[in-house]
Amino acid sequence: MSGDLDHPRRLIIEPADLEGVRRSDGSVDWTRVTGVVVAEISDTHD
To answer: What DSSP assignment string belongs to 1-42?
Structure first.
């Protein structure tokens, strides 16, 4: 998942633990995520 910071930077996060948060189609059910890891802060326009 990502979110806007000060343009053009974006914050990229991912679940800290994927156990029990995957839907049957493989996507993440973010309503069940209890912790995240900051994967990166980047300029996605670079």
So the answer is: -EEE-STTEEEEEEES--TTTB-TTS-B-GGG---EEEEEEE
